[in-house]
Amino acid sequence: MVRPDYDQFTCNLCGNASGVSHDFHREGGACSHCGSNMRYRALMRALSQHLYDKPLPLSAFIPDKNFKVMGLSDASLYADKLATLYDYTNFFYHTEPFLDICNIENMISGSYDLLITSDVFEHVPPPRHIAFVNSWHLLKPGGLLLLTVPYTLLPKTVEHFPSLHHFGFVNDGTDILLVNRREDQTIEVFDKLIWHGGEGSTLEMRVYSETDLIQIISAAGFKEIKIWNEDFPENGILQSHQGGSFVITATKDDNSAPIEITHNDPYRENIYPEDMCINHFLVHRPTRVSGTRAERAIELWNTNTPQHKTALPVFTRIWLYIRRKLNG
Length: 328
Ligand SMILES: [Zn+2]
Known about the structure:
The chain is an alpha/beta fold.
């Protein structure tokens, strides 16, 4: 890891000076006062630059209760402050106020000035463009998408379950397995699932590539796409070495209609073949299970799962399932 060449930084979330941390990676570099990590500081720094054209600490952001903001599972470290400044609602996919970004039929289009989605869109089920197109719909003309997802600078995205259709999870005593009935009715079983920390359903569905992301954001009707990859050591933001996963901002282009929502992935050529070995520190692929272990998992799934899709959005189903399992 890069050794910072300064003694202290000023946290742009809490405004306090913090000693240098030696774990300057995206989820590290904790502020010794509020505990903010580098990702949160980079996110708020980019927001300040966009809104005010200068790097204000969060405490100096200008209150405006007519400025309507949607957060998707935002961290309370900055969400609580944003709620005092703006007309801000933090939505969740496992609790109230509830929102599934892939299903926004109950929401009013064109009503938000800002949509913050930090490390959420790597968890949405395929096809991955739906979340971006829906973000466009929710924003006002000129509204801002403030986004982070873990991503690489590889040419293509690693999509873990490209044929995900009707799926669920079973615990076979060794691990939690994913069982998926594809649209063609064949069933596939996966082991070595990647879960991210935090509440709610945090199954990693993919590791994006920057090229794929930019293409999807652009085709979803956004312009002025900016990648915030600079270092700001004064705010404890040392990210240029991390090779991707930077904050991205984009504004809603009202003159451009987004690509249609389809259930087929329009960007299939942006995905690596499943059997291709990808050597990258962010990429850990789930593995296919076959033989008797797969048969047993399918049997468990058939026994435990109602065979008709419920009205509950998919993430709620996953979360309820995991919570049941955790509670024994
Ligand atoms: Zn702080």
